Amino acid sequence: MSDFIHVFEPGHAPALLLLHGTGGDEHDLLPLGRRLAPGAALLSPRGKVLEQGMPRFFRRLAEGVFDEDDLRRRTDELAGFVTEARGRYGIPAPVAVGFSNGANIAAALLLRHPGLLGGAALIRAMMPFAEPPVADLSGTPVLLLSGSQDPIVPAANSAALAGLLQADGAAVTHHELPVGHGLSGMDMALAGKWLQALSPNR
Ligand code: MLT
């Protein structure tokens, strides 16, 4: 298996791919995943890039300015990991739940590897590529939760990401919440409901 340090917790569908923010690790979002989708399978890798000792999923040149060559390479590597993990653990195409840096690489996964993810909840994501590839995301459900007081992600940037994913055919639900960059109770409530609606029988 591609060498990502990770945790896998077996469970039912939808399987969640948990992608942490800068400075997090594979354990960070497990409580969130368990709360958002009780009993769901959880796959939680640790980003391989270290920024002053803090794990991330790809390099950045400054806050909000990405090393896009590295981002492309890391996105493809993570896609390989997800594909191998699906075979190894017998899980369906996972729904990504990404926060901040993890949401950004989840957006990059959607754009570079359409069909890899069953959907994505992107919490405080921004446009990952200056010139995004054209992707066919027909029917892929995407939840985008942005914060109107987010000092890292300008409102216009998250709106542009929502527009791009929609233009690619994704079924986008975008909420702009009256919050900053951090995770809030509103994120939990909205993400939980959105996931529930993806598999209403649970
Ligand atoms: C990023 O680098 O992905 C964004 O600036 C968000 C962050 O990790 O702080």
What does this structure look like?
This protein is an alpha/beta fold and 202 residues long. The chain has one domain (6-198): Rossmann fold. It contains 5 helices and 11 strands. Strand 10, helix 4 and strand 11 form a beta-alpha-beta unit. Helix 2 packs across helix 3. The N and C termini lie far apart (30 Å).
Helices, strands, pairings?
Blueprint: E1 6-9, E2 12-19, H1 30-36, E3 40-45, E4 49-51, E5 54-56, E6 60-62, E7 65-66, H2 68-89, E8 95-99, H3 101-112, E9 119-123, E10 141-147, H4 155-167, E11 171-177, H5 185-198
Parallel strand pairs: 2-3, 2-8, 8-9, 9-10, 10-11
Antiparallel strand pairs: 1-3, 4-5, 6-7
Helix pairs in contact: 2-3
**What name is given to the CATH topology?**
Rossmann fold
Largest sheet: 7 strands, mixed
Query: How far apart are the first and last residues' alpha carbons, in Å?
Result: 30 Å
Structural class: alpha/beta
Kindly provide the radius of gyration, computed on alpha-carbon positions and rounded to a whole number of angstroms.
Answer: 15 Å
Number of domains: 1
| Average residue pLDDT | 96
- CATH uppermost class: Alpha Beta
List low-pLDDT spans. none
**Helix segment tally:** 5
Sequence of secondary-structure elements:
EEHEEEEEHEHEEHEH
CATH architecture: 3-Layer(aba) Sandwich
Count of extended strands: 11
Helix content: 25-40%
- Ligands bound, unique: D-malate
Q: What is the strand arrangement across the widest sheet?
A: 1-3-2-8-9-10-11
Quick one: CATH superfamily? Alpha/Beta hydrolase fold, catalytic domain
User: Beta-sheet strand percentage?
Assistant: 25-35%
Quick one: overall form?
globular
Keywords: Hydrolase
InterPro entries: AB_hydrolase_fold (IPR029058), LYPA1-2/EST-like (IPR050565), PLipase/COase/thioEstase (IPR003140)
Domain Phospholipase/carboxylesterase/thioesterase: 12-197
Family: Belongs to the AB hydrolase superfamily. AB hydrolase 2 family.
